[in-house]
Amino acid sequence: MNADHMTDAQLAAHLAEVAGRLLLDVRAAGVLSLKALGKAGDATANQFLCHALRELRPDDGLLSEEEKDNFDRLASSRVWIVDPVDGTREYGEERTDWAVHVALAIDGRPVHGAVALPGAGLVLRSDQPAPVPPAPDRLRMVVSRTRPAAEAMAVAAALDAEVIPMGSAGAKAMAVVLGQADIYLHTGGQYEWDSCAPAAVALAHGLHVSRIDGSPLVYNQADTYMPDLLICRPQHAQPVLDLLAQQ
Fold first, then answer.
1. What is the structure's pLDDT at 247?
2. Annotated binding site
3. Which of 21, 119, 142, 217 has minimal Cβ neighbours within 10 Å of its Cβ?
4. What are the CA-CA distances from residue 146 to residues 33, 120, 143 (Å)?
């Protein structure tokens, strides 16, 4: 399908997939150090995504982790929010738990989006939801593999949940979508580009998505800092929120 005739969700998925392929090609060249590889990957994917969106959706706003913020976006009801490489460290270390995020927020809500997991050959999308597999008897919680949050560890202990360390935010959120985990609880700092595409995909799959006080995630803010979120099956949300309120 010609990109000019794609729906917003189709475009998000297409761009995330192509950016993922570009990133794999950059990594496969094998000529850069780990640090340089991360920078080259970020720059390559960002250039592709931003140029494509400005050409194909010129009237929409744009927010990317890898570009200086343009506050003109605040006047737009439609804003694309992208993270060219979510999990730069994991990408550079040739792990699979990194992602590409492409999302469209409309009036602050994460409406359309795609999360590519190039290392796993997957693109999860808001326009192609699939049933989330049932939870096992013992719940599984994904946490940061390098900086697991104290709040998440406390909730995991209270629920007797298995803790699964994992890299990028997108990889952790998609683990819940895929039924590989049951709860993704994050505190301690993120930005809009870290969660917008994962939130759009998770919501489309019928999952609970909120801040850790239960309020909705609201995007296209002047301050893009969004330090916490909870993604899980609806039946697990209130027990987790209750435990968080007790901390």
1. 84
2. 65, 83, 86, 194
3. 21
4. 21, 21, 9
